[in-house]
From TrEMBL:
Residues 779-810, 854-893 are annotated as: Disordered. The lineage of its organism: Eukaryota, Viridiplantae, Streptophyta, Embryophyta, Tracheophyta. Keywords: DNA-binding, Isomerase, Magnesium, Metal-binding, Topoisomerase, Zinc, Zinc-finger. This is DNA topoisomerase. It comes from Liquidambar formosana (Formosan gum). Its EC number is 5.6.2.1.
Amino acid sequence: MSGGHPIRVLNVAEKPSVAKSVAGILSRNQGLIVRHGRSRYNRVFEFSYAIRGQPCQMLFTSVTGHLMEIDFDDRYRKWHSCDPADLYHAPLRKFVPEDKLDIKRTLEEEASSCQWLVLWLDCDREGENIAFEVVEVCTVANHQLNIWRARFSALIDRDIHEAVQNLGRPNQLFADAVDARQVFLQEIDLRIGASFTRFQTMLLKDAFVLDFNRNDRNLVLSYGPCQFPTLGFIVERYWEIQSHEPEEFWTINCSHNSDEGTCTFNWMRGHLFDYTCAVLIYEMCVQEPTATVTKVKQQEKLKYPPHPLNTIELEKRASRYFRMSSEHTMKVAEDLYQAGFISYPRTETDSFSQRTDLHAIVQEQQGHPVWGSYAQQLLDPGAGLWRNPSNGGHDDKAHPPIHPTKFSAGESGWSQDHQKLYELVVRHFLACVSQPAVGAETTVEIDIAGEFFSASGRVIIAKNYLDVYRFESWGGSMIPTYVVGQQFIPTTLTLDSGVTRPPPLLSEADLLNCMDKAGIGTDATMHDHIKKLLDRFYATKDSNTRFSPTNLGEALVMGYDDMGYELWKPYLRSMMEGDMKAVSIGTKRKAEVLATCLEQMKACFLDARLKKVKLLEAMAVFFERSNRSGRDEQLGVGGVVRRCGLCQEFDMVLKRQPAGNFMVGCLGFPQCRNVVWLPGSIAEAALTTNVCNSCTPGPVYMVQFKFRRLEIPPNYNVDHLGCIGGCDEILRQLTEICGTGSRSLPAVPARGRGPIASSSNVERSTTRQSACAHCRQMGHSSSDCPMQGSRSRGAQSHRMTSQSGESSIPCDTCGLPCVLRTANTANNRGRKFYSCQSQECNFFVWEDNLNNITGGRSAPRANTSSSASNPSRRGGRGRGGRSGAHAAGGTFVSATGDPISGRRCYVCGDPSHFANVCPNRGT
DNA sequence: GCAAGGTC
């Protein structure tokens, strides 16, 4: 203490705007002197202030986020300076970057003339970490500094004055743990990110034609522990959609018109996938259609307001309600925060502390022209609208949930988005302290021939929070009155069909959810990772804020997935975070954990690099090889196999492509494109002097193959002396089973990529102009060859996708895709069949027979539909054959009392069909 | 030219 002299206090905030705001609040803008420091952005504010009665000369300046960075030593900085694998042990340095040196100097100079240092850094993990950096710089300049921490969460008078009058000490333990964690993650992120980014960029960028409409000298195929798992979520959902096979289901619907209106009853079984079963039940109902009311239940239902608002919820809701991107939302929220209208927008917390004066926040909103009256009601104890907010279960112990901190009925400088976001924050807050909406629900159950149906209606009794939270709604629909025991004849009773649908693409809100659950990124950075995927051409966002991977994004994830690594999954980072926790609570030593982790990561990197073929193969599915590394890189492995039978001019030679797969190609390429693709499972292939004695014209030299054990079925030998001339059954089978490396996908659909995915992938491939190894025709690979049986790949490969996107099959005789038609004959009306487009072929097959043969999804029906007398066939049922079912839009004709045979149509008595598809119904 | 984390 220096007698009567004021204490000189150096105050440091995380950013200039906070320094300005806090200085303004503390000085009440009286006697505030502003001067420039060495940094042009970070000014120094000076004013007098009394802390607990102690006169102080306050100096208030700021940093701009982190003062320090880490990077590799200079000699490792250039991309070609070292093997990327060296980056796992290359020395790092922590330093103040060039553009922050002037801030550092300001801090040093001011610190040397002060007695106190007050840290006004944000109260979060990174804030503590930055505080550490500030302390480090300042104490070097002045060892005597008395160091304090100010804790605040909103830039409003109340918070700030409270903070400065209740200064604490920086929590050394917490700061250490935070520091250890941050340094650890920083280091891991840098080493992994840089090594993989350099590796995959240098491997792929020039090897393929990546036409993204930009100068690809700057193209970087980055890899990062946050961006890749985020991409993984998008790709996974995309694959899920692609592999979805629509499945037809059946349901019985019932409605009843009465004086009070129409009531729709839903079948309590939901829906059935078995048509026969559904029809039997339907017929039962139709025979005894009288409905008896078995249950009438009336119940009060509550719909609760949301939890208090945190960052992720803010981003999700802004995306959902206003279609604002998360990145833009955070920018707008930051503006509102800096202007003092809302509290700190980067918070995990979704519950208010006991000390928060919630009423005061509501009071401020009373004057608003739109929601002011709602705020008044909330404060009126007689209205009974108030309810203490729920606890969402998250607390970052640094900031309260996002809430309004200053009243505004709109500012002149605000954009529409500022307006919307402020409104969302206010309405959300008001909703949080409101009673739930109350509804009265009525459920009625009826019994028709032993089958149960139910209908429900809801009447909203009190909207409560829904009055102010206009973004949410709660549908209400009235239903007529029924009493137990009441009987009636349904107005309609129909058997309807539907198909299962794939899930939708991920929306921005879904994506944030996935990231949140997996712990990817922080509140402040999640939107950055999403944007990075767009910037790197890994994903696109449609107008509906839904994300799809680009070919590039899908190829990269596919490549790593094929390696067997889950580098694109979030586990890696979660594991590291877990280890860090162990460090922070002292059960593991930091250096140990770091060393182990680095070893593991390096091993993973080296192994991934060994399997780089997988990346190249995946890329080749989507992109053309570039000239820059085309033929030159094809590694000749030796010798002439035979004379080319196509051009009859050049020799066919055994080659190994850069991607690792083998082929026998004509030296006349590109004029002659004759090629024999070989199985992707070949590890080695060497030409021998043995000549095949069955293939002509000879000589055709035989090749000694060595297959990779794990990639071929167990009943095949690893070593095989084979012939590429067409006589070799084993080679043909293995080509079919394993595919041919880069050109086709594995025969067995991996992960979520089902048959639909593979067909569309193959169509996108630009390297398909080679001939089929089986029939020598162009335009397909041997595994899709129409001249082959549908043996190993089953029903899926038997189908093609025609240009119009319709499912098709190849003609048995000529191989052309068949046309799917619908029969219109008396016996088979509505039944689908395939026939050849060519007049010469008489190829014809019933679609439902095809399913039986190939064992498609309609298997349960296969047993029953083989007999022509079975009526279930007549409904025109089958994949794509739903026309008969859709005719079920007509109404149920009420019972006449006539006896009905179980095997006849109830409407017209015809035994060839059931009532739901009867041509006479409804007329 | 690389990560993720702050922020301008």
